[in-house]
Amino acid sequence: MKPLKRYQYERYAVLCNLAYAKSFKHTRLGFDANGQRIIKNQQGKVMIRVLWSESRSEVIVVIKGSHSLFDWLLNFLAWPASCRQLNLPYRIHYGFYRLMTQLSYDSPPPQSLNVLQELESILVPLIQRGKHISITGHSSGGAIGTVLGDYLSRKYPKCIKRIVTFGQPAIGNWQFHQRYLLKSRTYRICCDLDIVTFMPPLPLVYWHVGSMLWLYNGRIYENTPTMVRLGRSLLSWLIRPFSYHLMSKYIRNKDFFDEH
Predict the structure, then answer these.
(1) Greatest CA span in the chain, whole angstroms?
(2) Cβ(24)–Cβ(60) under 8 Å?
(3) Which phi and psi (to 5°) does residue 251 adopt?
(4) What 3-state DSSP class applies to 241?
(5) Does the N-terminal or the C-terminal CB of the chain have fewer CB atoms within 10 Å?
(6) Residue 39: count of CB within 10 angstroms of its CB
(7) Which residues are CB-contacts of 39 (< 8 A; sequence separation ≥ 6)?
(8) What pLDDT score does 254 carry?
(9) Minimal CA–CA distance to 48: which of 148, 187, 152?
(10) Which fold has domain 6-257?
(11) pLDDT for 53-101, tens place per residue?
């Protein structure tokens, strides 16, 4: 696996953080004026931004984490769901499956595309023009980003450049862990003692994929054993449960990536 360089980490972290802001000026970040497409969830809230410029070969897909009551409720629907309709050979968290397959707000009948289908319809012309896709997301946005990347890579081989997630919970079963195609291109970044990275709390039911980079006490640790992180996280959680899950924590730690 190629190391994640500092400037790459910074760029994805900034995009994920700004995705939650009310105002998002993509041209200030080096993207073309017409180099943005927005996908809204069924409630009309921005869920995904697709960003690109003609001068670069990389298209960046930025996926928000849970940002409404509906999203948070889906987090609790944690039984495994089949992905046969997506032609994927594994099961994933039902609530996150619903996030990906909910109807897109801007796709009314008779077309009625779901979020995944609308994303694919935006990306295919860009892929055909030789561009490569990077996917980044925070929390549940990072979790579904791994599945979206795997789905796209199976249909359009070699289209995915990398996947970078921040504070993501686990999403797939053991078959997902074994059959995921992008292990060498996926970076899962955990900040300090972020308890969300251990969810859902169902041991051996849900598994993570890719290389884990843990930002803790001013250092970077790669692929730290889960029990080591969990022990420290449980103690911290008793004091400040979700303080380390904020996207601002990941922005703070961007300087730790000098050697990556």
Answers:
(1) 53
(2) no
(3) -65, -45
(4) coil
(5) N
(6) 24
(7) 46, 47, 48, 49, 50, 104, 106, 115, 118, 119, 122
(8) 61
(9) 148
(10) Rossmann fold (3.40.50)
(11) 999 999 999 999 987 788 888 888 999 999 999 999 999 999 999 999 9
